[in-house]
Amino acid sequence: MAETSPRARLILALVLAFGFAAVQGLAVLPLVMALAVSVVLVFGAGRVVLRRMRAPMLLVLGLTLVLPLISGSTVLAQIGPVALRLEGLQAAALIAGRLLSIVAVTVALLATLSPFDLVAGLRALRVPALMTDLALLTLRYLDEVTTELRRASIARSLRGGKRGWRALPDHALLLATSLIRAQARSERLWAAMRLRGYGTGLALPNSPLHARDWAAITGAALLALGVVWLDRTL
Amino acid sequence: MHLPDGIVPVEMALAGYACSAGLVAVALHRIKARPDPQAEIPRVAMLTTVFFAASLAAVPVPPTTVHLMLAGLMGVMLGWFAVPAIMVGLFLQAVLFGHGGLTTLGLNGLILCLPALLALRLWQQIGGRWPDLAAFGAGAGAVVVAIAIFAAIVLTGLPAELDARAERAAVQIFALAHLPLALAEGVIVLVLLRVLRRIEPRLLPDG
Amino acid sequence: MAGPDIVNVLDLDGLSVGWPGHAPVLKELSFALPRGAHVGLVGPNGAGKTTLFHTIAGVLRAQAGSVRVMGRTVLPGQFRTETALVFQQAEDQLFCPTLAEDVAFGPRNLGLSEAEISARARAALSVCELTGLEDRPVHHLSGGEKRRACIAGALAMQPDLLLLDEPSAALDMRQRRRLIALLAKMDQAMLIASHDLELVLELCPRVIVIDQGRVCADGPAHEVLGDARLMEAHGQEVPHSLTPHYTPGHLHVRNSL
Amino acid sequence: MAGPDIVNVLDLDGLSVGWPGHAPVLKELSFALPRGAHVGLVGPNGAGKTTLFHTIAGVLRAQAGSVRVMGRTVLPGQFRTETALVFQQAEDQLFCPTLAEDVAFGPRNLGLSEAEISARARAALSVCELTGLEDRPVHHLSGGEKRRACIAGALAMQPDLLLLDEPSAALDMRQRRRLIALLAKMDQAMLIASHDLELVLELCPRVIVIDQGRVCADGPAHEVLGDARLMEAHGQEVPHSLTPHYTPGHLHVRNSL
Ligand SMILES: Nc1ncnc2c1ncn2[C@@H]1O[C@H](COP(=O)(O)OP(=O)(O)OP(=O)(O)O)[C@@H](O)[C@H]1O
Ligand SMILES: Nc1ncnc2c1ncn2[C@@H]1O[C@H](COP(=O)(O)OP(=O)(O)OP(=O)(O)O)[C@@H](O)[C@H]1O
Ligand SMILES: [Mg+2]
Ligand SMILES: [Mg+2]
């Protein structure tokens, strides 16, 4: 499945994510999670997903610690003033299941693409050229601008720059300098783009969707609908 | 302050997409009406890159460090271009860095775009007469409005059984925790726009 | 060196140019470039070299006089594929995600077929010794590779006139040597603006000196660059390779300047 | 040249350094700089020159060995005002709105009185021949002026050790000459990393060659830079002023390389 086109992957990710987000009961949650795991395995993205799961895991941990204590009326256990409540526990489990499944699916489908293919996929989905060009140029120059900002901040420290909140105005100065340079650079960039005939946008033209892509999209749509239907009937 | 996936009900997420799409359509319509919108793409892209890079770097606000949001500044400096720029930034963040989420892209767009447009409005209204006040207001105000929208969305979206007292307490803690961020952004936007007005007024829209 | 053509690749005739809202930078410039000529353009900072290149490429409007490329007058805003400009800032010129896409960007805008586009891109990459790096994101290229990538992007347009603004800036010895070898074997007409006089001397049989927007000298490289009085007057120095040295003792004399 | 002190300004002792998450870039580097010494640092792209400067300035952590400045070990994150670093990218270093503010930035952070701050700034500006440009926005300075502004900002800290990374990059002849004259009369200890070997030759009696993170040569400039075999092996060339030329004919031979 690794050859699925970027455009198809975007559609797959959206369809599955919204399908999972629509789940309201705990009953289909195991099915949803199993589906998420199989998508990860099919796209061979296990390692990436595990790496990117850390932050969502922390969030989920926070929720499961807090929600059961503050939400719901059915008390399951009481230790002093602290009561563990059923509804809160259910809500926490539901949110955690949905969150982790959606993140797993999006990471498996999209984070494994090169960022530039991703933008080409967006262009193919008829996202306006203005936005995809913004995305491409931002991706292209993000590293450089980050490095420049980091260097400037080292230069500031080397000249005894203040620490703590008193450094805030200095940060504003660094940002202002960076913006001024960005402006100058954009003028050169525009000349370069025009000289090479910039007209219709930077992203590559559409590549057609193959039969395999259509099959994947149809499959995902059916799965998502199935999940929602099961959720509403069970 | 990005809303992750899976927290709010799917209806809200869909409504968020619809509202954001509407906002983008309005913004693109406004942009198309400008004399040569294509020629502005490199400028908007380069400034957006700087905003993006700056919001990835941690800024000290004791006792911790925070990440700037910069929605107000984007509104002031990019005008209506801020809307597509913010949406692009959010998409890239969600997919590349795992901040925010795919289903909540629309809602997150509202959380940042509305404050940006309000900041722009504020700057256009009083930036000429009281530039420092307008700048601080744009910076700090955008954070406050974003927090308000964020809190409203979360409260509407969370399970109904949540008891009212806990709810209010959580909102208060959340808002208080972000007060330093609002102040920090206010100061940064104030200093920054002062510098730009002094040495590179070309970069500012007619305030 | 020039072909059997009658036309010059480039004709400047009494050209005066300024940036919008500023005084003219170039004043009554006239010279011509025959086919295949490699000409060096030398002058101090602010002399107007970059301004001249922008005018030839059709970014700036001539206030007086005319620029003709391949016999046709250049109109500002009109994108002419006969001219390719390589900027001093390589980063700003490589705006596509990967090397292959960047080199193919120009040909794609010419409306060629996919096969032709990729043939041209492959040819340009191989001339510039970049084969194998096609899928590399542009910001992961080294300084010398970026410079060569810019040149590849220009060559893919198959221009008749190549304008190079400070091609050796920020390159180390090895990369600079490689660039010189690469440029030496090209047969397009070329105008090379550079502060690196040794490079100019190696690549260009003819050199034009401009200062304050006027042509101050135009002639064989050895004569022009070897003329200490002329060089001195325009903020340059005679390149080391044109001055005989026997002892290293002169260094200390120089040091005390 | 060195003063009557016992201490070296800089002492490197078996220094190994790498960027976080990468293999070491510098491997067991050892050398010392006496007071007032001007030393050139030469090596191909990626040799580790910039990395070394970052380590000396306390940005990077030594994995093994130690760096001592003025006899005290440098700890990462602890920025020492005895060391001043001038980056290759002048723009990154000038972040205050005007030249005067930028040069005064360092002294102001040292907690000096206003009178002292302005005295120091004025002195630094005048050494760097920037007097008269105080109120100019930094981004309206020319390349050479920016470079000198960075040096002025460094000098205003009154450092004992000045680290210069490619100081002549992007300068024209006149600016470069001016920079050389300026640096030649300074009496701080200086480490100059540069691909401009003529500049190194004029400024530094001693040259260190590094390649792949190791010291490959350390000795008198004329011997080191004049050693064709050594230079060749590390991607450099013997500077023109150290090779005797009698006829310009060699150019054509070179061209066909
Ligand atoms: N974008 C611009 N707007 C206004 N004036 C400009 C602009 N670019 C250059 N100039 C002015 O035009 C004059 C010539 O500059 P130009 O960049 O052509 O010189 P140059 O010969 O290329 O110098 P260098 O060797 O530094 O590249 C200078 O006085 C400069 O101030
Ligand atoms: N920020 C960084 N993160 C990781 N590796 C880096 C970083 N900067 C440099 N390096 C690596 O360290 C090595 C030495 O780089 P360094 O910049 O010190 O070389 P240099 O001698 O300064 O080269 P140049 O002449 O091109 O400036 C290179 O292999 C480079 O890839
Ligand atoms: Mg120039
Ligand atoms: Mg370096």
Report on the structure:
- The complex is a heterotetramer, with one copy of chain A (234 residues), one copy of chain B (207 residues) and two copies of chain C (257 residues).
- Chain A is mainly alpha-helical and 234 residues long.
- Chain A contains nine helices and two strands; from the N terminus they run H-H-H-H-E-E-H-H-H-H-H.
- Chain A has two domains: 138 residues, no CATH class; 68 residues, no CATH class.
- A two-stranded antiparallel sheet of chain A has the order 1-2.
- In chain A, helix 2 packs parallel to helix 5 and helix 4 runs antiparallel to helix 5.
- Chain A is flat.
- The mean pLDDT of chain A is 87.
- Chain B has one domain: Arp2/3 complex 21 kDa subunit ARPC3, CATH 1.10.1760.20.
- The mean pLDDT of chain B is 89.
- Chain C is an alpha/beta fold and 257 residues long.
- Chain C is 34% helix and 24% strand.
- The longest helix of chain C has 14 residues.
- Chain C is globular, with a radius of gyration of 19 Å.
- Chain C starts with 9 loop residues before the first strand and ends with a helix.
- The C terminus of chain C is likely disordered.
- At the B-D interface, helix 7 of B face loops of D.
- The complex binds adenosine-5'-triphosphate (ATP) (2 copies) and magnesium ion (2 copies).
- One adenosine-5'-triphosphate binds next to helix 1 of chain C.
Output the radius of gyration of chain A: 24 Å
Rounded mean pLDDT of chain B is: 89
Distance between the terminal alpha carbons of chain A, to the nearest Å? Answer: 32 Å
Low-confidence stretches of chain A: none
The unique ligands bound to this protein are: adenosine-5'-triphosphate, magnesium ion
Q: Percent range for helical residues of chain B? A: over 70%
Q: List the total number of helices of chain B.
A: 7
Mean pLDDT of chain A: 87
Jot down its keywords.
heterotetramer, A: 234 residues, mainly alpha, 2 domains, two-stranded antiparallel ribbon, B: 207 residues, Arp2/3 complex 21 kDa subunit ARPC3, two-stranded antiparallel sheet, 2 strands, globular, binds adenosine-5'-triphosphate, binds magnesium ion
